[in-house]
Amino acid sequence: GYRVSLQGNFFGRNDTYVTFPEYNPRKHIKLDPPMNIQSNATASKCQIWWSVWNVPWYLTEILQYELQYKEYSMSWEVALNKTLPRSLPQVEIEATEFRSGIAYAARVRCKVSESENSYHSQWSEWSQSTVFQRADVPKVSEIILNTRTIQYLLIPLSFGALLYLFWSCKLSSRSRQKASPALTFPRQLLSFSHSIVCTMGILR
After folding, report:
1. N- to C-terminal Cα separation, the chain
2. Exposed e or buried b for every residue in 69-106, given b needs 16+ CB within 10 A?
3. Do residues 181 and 170 make contact, with C-beta atoms less than 8 angstroms apart?
4. pTM value > 0.90
5. Residue 123 Cα distances to 88, 101, 155, angstroms
6. Residues 15 and 64 placed together within one structural domain of the fold
7. How do residues 26-53 score in pLDDT, each as one tens digit?
8. How many domains does one find in the chain?
9. How far apart are CA 177 and CA 114, in angstroms?
10. What is the CATH number of the domain that holds 75?
């Protein structure tokens, strides 16, 4: 600890004023702002990471970060703040918190965690901002959805066709006494089933 005093000439008199009877530097820390903040946004999540500079190694593991983000065109006064639970210099946010097609800006600041007793600090200045935009949902999913719909519709149609073929073969066997139902119907059924399987394989 230190004893901090202010000494000077006041109204022609030399006086000394004790400002801090006992001053401990580790209880009055202000860190430099984080730097190199970067971001990467996809259709499902947004990743933001940064680095700290000029911070002693024994403080890096007890740091606390606060993230602030907003729409790029808006003011920082209306930004949303998120206090991060971990001391890691990174965060991952679900993309549902962002609107598609809108650019966002984010920045971060740090201080020693409030749960730490040996050190105490105030918030650092805000870092430089990073700009990101949520990616659109790929259109491939729509194609897959349409393919599955066709597959679901093809199943009842296949059964209907099989029933129609069955009754056609039954009626044909009655009109042709020489024809054998045991030979005619299985061949047609196998041929139709093979075409259905090939069609399903192409759609998948």
Report:
1. 74
2. bbeeeeeeeebeebebeeeebebebebeebeeeeebbb
3. yes
4. no
5. 17, 33, 64
6. no
7. 999 999 999 999 999 998 999 999 999 8
8. 2
9. 96
10. 2.60.40.10
